[in-house]
Amino acid sequence: MDCRVVVEAAVPVYDVETVDEAIRIAISKTGEMLNPDLKYVEISMGARTSPGGEELQPAFIAADEALVALELEMTVFNVEQEEHASRIARKEIGQRLENIPLKVLSVERVDDESVETDGEGDTRAETGASDADETLVDFDDLVDDH
């Protein structure tokens, strides 16, 4: 089974004045930390709400420093269950984003229609790697279940 995992990250950004600037810098900073190993991870702004349900901006700025909520999406291949996929995504992303808190927001099974083969029998997600010569890691080899 293949799963699409969405992980929320709280990315600190320094010396910023506006929310837009903080978001741009946070996305750039996160992309640099993930590349080239995890360039198939999609980075987008996170959605935040107040306890009363009011929509909030994805960044909080105080004293020219910001904490930006980002959502990171990746497809995990060949897993036994959704919990296994979430642990793999947290581990792979967390290894590259040191000192950045992560929280798994959702895990969805990927339908067979959204997965294609690259001509050599390897499965690739539509939103995964785009280069023909890029190979995706079989995450079962990386995680040791106890």
Automatic annotation (TrEMBL):
InterPro entries: UPF0212
Domain of life, source organism: Archaea
Location of region: Disordered: 111-146
Ranges of compositional bias, category Acidic residues: 111-120, 131-146
Family of the protein in this entry: Belongs to the UPF0212 family.
NCBIfam families, A to Z: PRK03922.1 (NF003035)
Protein name according to UniProt: UPF0212 protein BN996_01289
